[in-house]
Amino acid sequence: MTKPQFAGKMVIILAGYDKDMNNLLSVNEGLSSRFADEIIFPPLSPKNCLYLLEDKLKQSQIIIPNLQNPDFHQKLLATISELASLPAWGNARDVQALAKSMVREVFKTNTVKSDQLTLSGEKALACIESMLADRRSRQNTKLNPSTQFPGPVQTQDTSREAPFSKFTVSAADLKPQDDQLEEAVQPERPEDPRDAGVSETVWTELQADKKAAELQNQRLEKAIRDKEAQCRLAEQAERKLAAERETAELRALQAKNDIEAFELGRKREEARIRELEARMEKERIQQELDKQREIEMERKKKEQEVQTKLREMGVCPAGFRWIKQSGGYSCAGGSHWVDNGTLGI
Q1: What is the C-alpha separation between 296 and 292, in angstroms, rounded?
Q2: What range defines the domain where residue 118 resides?
Q3: Number of domains composing the chain
Q4: What is the dihedral of CA 68, 69, 72, 73, to 10 degrees?
Q5: 5 domain residue, yes or no
Q6: Whole-angstrom Cα distance, residue 107 to residue 105?
Q7: Are 51 and 97 in contact (CB under 8 A)?
Q8: Which residue among 139, 168, 185 closes a domain?
Q9: Strand partners of residue 13
Q10: pTM score of the predicted model
């Protein structure tokens, strides 16, 4: 950062929550002087958070009639204030998450298309209290020591702490270098078109089922990756124990007296047993992995057969892909439906 070939030619920004930033800057005493410029972003007030929440709901044609009640308004404001006081509060981002949870709550009970939907004060308060309970639970969960910064951390200077998030800038000029890596931008995947006449309720349910199918595939793929990682660890353990056994055998051959030879022979036998146990554990994990792969291949095969059969039936003239839902399949456009009985599954 201070060498002539780099100084004044690049900008380095460190951004994050206040506590994390102070921990980072305390790792090395020279960091604070190299990042002298600070910009602090104050959080939204609970009152503005409530205004933003109301505006987000109005964008979805949803209102909370009880907000006009002063007592309920104050109770809602107090709950949001308590939520905003937690360290993990994300301001507008969490307000948007609250709005989404309330929209889902409305669509659970309102199945008739309407230009204006309502959310009861009790359910609105329940959504906020649910997020509050979740955040408190996470706050009380201790961090895993293995995830903490392994470097030499200096004693933190608490005088640097501030109540808001900040980022620091090291220079004012930015000149792009030829050898800088360019960020790879992935093209956005086009969304499935929505057929004319499909109601908002049907479309919302269809998108939720589509997302659930994608999440299921991700969970299955992650399970396989985790099992593969376990298999690799088991192989590493087997190789390590094999090396220990070979070392013990060599030392046993070089033993100068019977007592040492006996002790080394005992260690060699223990190493052999541990190696055998490691091999058996590796084989067990490999068998589980093979079985899980076989199940996943069979599931994908059946799903491909269903998709092929649906395309051959020609129910959807546009040829959209089909999304599995409860009791059958719906085309991605939302207009066409085929039940499991018709598909023979």
Answers
A1: 6
A2: 46-139
A3: 2
A4: 40
A5: no
A6: 6
A7: no
A8: 139
A9: 169
A10: 0.37
Q: What is the pLDDT of residues 83-116, one digit of tens each?
A: 888 887 888 889 999 999 999 888 887 766 667 7
DSSP-derived secondary structure letter, 4: T
Answer whether 51's CB lies under 8 Å from 199's CB.
no
| 311 residue type, one letter | R
> Count of residues for the chain?
345
Q: Write out the DSSP string of 266-320.
A: HHHHHHHHHHHHHHHHHHHHHHHHHHHHHHHHHHHHHHHHHHHHHHHHT-STT--
Strand 165-169 relative to strand 37-41: parallel, antiparallel, unpaired? antiparallel
Angle, alpha carbons 19-22-24 (nearest 5°): 110
- Alpha-carbon gap, residue 171 to 98, rounded angstroms: 38
pLDDT reported for residue 100: 92
Q: Which of 86, 101, 15, 16 is nearest to 46 (CA)?
A: 86
- Mark whether 207 and 292 lie in a shared domain: yes
